[in-house]
Design goal:
It is a single chain. With 175 residues, this protein is an alpha+beta fold. It has a single domain (34-172), classed as Hotdog Thioesterase (Thiol Ester Dehydrase, Chain A). It is built from 3 helices and 7 strands; from the N terminus they run H-E-E-H-E-E-E-E-E-H. The chain has helices at 5-27, 61-77, 164-172; strands spanning 36-38, 41-47, 90-99, 109-119, 123-132, 143-153, 158-159. Strands 1, 2, 3, 4, 5, 6 and 7 form a 7-stranded antiparallel sheet that branches. The longest helix has 23 residues, at 5-27. The chain is globular, with a radius of gyration of 18 Å. The N and C termini lie far apart (55 Å).
């Protein structure tokens, strides 16, 4: 394939997004001191990106759910190796979120704090708080969310009991 003006235009479109993604991967890499397990359980920083915002300059509602997804995956990665989607043995069954106050680009980053309020036989809940970086003040939160996850066997295409090792990991995060 020859390098043309058209291919350079395509490169200019996706290259900035690639570098933002690369920076995000560095920030949330295992062993990064910015990741922590504090009073609100597992906490991870998230950089606010321009593409997260809507025409009003606020972070779009769907971006908040992506922030929760990043926290969920990085929590799992902090305990297991993930090479592909089937290395994550659970599926998302339910999401609910309360938007508490607007979040915009004037806030360069937030942190997502996660806890486990409930553990069942094959499912559990994650509770999330999206808040300004470095604060545990509940009144400062931008949003609170809850997801229900189900342990899943991809081979059988069915739910399965939470394995003992992961149950222990979840119980360490339980509130």
């Amino acid at each position: 394939m020859a390098f043309t003006r058209e291919s350079a235009g395509c490169l200019n479109e996706w290259l900035p997004a690639f570098f933002v993604l690369l920076l995000a991967c560095i920030l949330i890499a295992p062993g990064n001191p910015l990741r922590s397990l504090g009073p609100m359980g597992f906490t991870i920083p998230i950089q606010i990106r321009f593409r997260d915002t809507d025409g009003m300059g606020h972070v779009n509602n769907a971006a908040f759910l992506s922030y929760c997804e990043v926290a969920r995956l990085e929590f799992y990665r902090s305990h297991y190796t993930v090479r592909g989607p089937r290395d994550v043995p659970f599926i998302l069954a339910r999401t609910e979120i309360d938007y508490l106050r607007p979040l915009g680009l004037d806030q360069p980053s937030v942190e997502v704090a996660m806890t486990v309020p409930r553990i069942g036989e094959s499912s559990w809940d994650f509770a999330y708080e999206i808040r300004p970086t470095g604060t545990a003040d509940a009144n400062a939160s931008f949003a609170r969310a809850k997801t229900v996850l189900v342990a899943y066997d991809y081979e059988r295409g069915a739910k399965q009991p939470i394995d003992a090792k992961f149950r222990k990991i979840l119980s360490d995060l339980q509130t």
